[in-house]
Amino acid sequence: MSVTIILLISAFLLISQPLSSSTAVADEHPTAYDLLGDYHFPEGILPKGVIGYDLEPSTGKFHAYLKGSCSFSLEGSYQLKYKSTVSGYISKDRITSLTGVSVKVLFFWLNIVEVVRSGDDLEFSVGIASASFPLSNFFESPQCGCGVNCGSSEVRKLKLNPSVSSI
Asked: Is 3 exposed, middle or buried (0-12, 13-18, 19+ CB in 10 A)?
């Protein structure tokens, strides 16, 4: 009987062991999308498919890595391009010195250099001008090639706030 009890205790101890350290370490490392949330940004400002990132917490300097360059259209007239590496400095409610993201305005591609969250709006700056959009436009990450409504012929319309300004 004592051998049976020892076997049962041994089996219980084996079953109740914590997960392996490699699994625990993987779970401790947040995704780039999780990281955006930590700084009060929605995940939809990055397209699907970020394969990695690095962040220097003391300065906020970051790099986000995609499999390759990425482009898509929103609202039919807004075309966005992401390079394979997007970088900048992130802090609560602000991304500055942004590189790797551009928007087509009329016939010109302009680099988005700053993103600021102001309440329920995100303001995107190309240096000489900026435009604000409701935060709700960015709850879902767009997919490279087709944007947000990939399985549908419908193009998602971005709601533009009337606050478009130039410097």
From this structure: exposed
DSSP string, 33-72: HHHHHHTT--GGGS-S-EEEEEEETTTTEEEEEESS-EEE
84 within 8 A of 65, measured Cβ to Cβ: yes
In this structure, the dihedral spanned by the alpha carbons of residues 125, 160, 134 and 69, taken in order and rounded to 10 degrees, is: -50
Q: Tell me how far apart the alpha carbons of residues 151 and 140 are, in angstroms, rounded to a whole number.
A: 14
**Contact (Cβ atoms closer than 8 angstroms) between residue 93 and residue 119:** no
Structural domains counted in the chain: 1
CB-based contacts of 54, cutoff 8 Å, min separation 6: 62, 63
Give the residue numbers spanning the domain of 78: 2-166
In this prediction the pTM is 0.74
Q: What is the CATH number of the domain that holds 15?
A: 2.30.240
- Reported as a single tens digit per residue, the pLDDT across 60-76 is 999 999 999 999 887 65
User: What residues contact 48, with CB distance under 8 A and at least 6 apart?
Assistant: 141, 142, 143, 144
Alpha-carbon 107 to chain mean position? 27
3-state secondary structure at position 114: strand
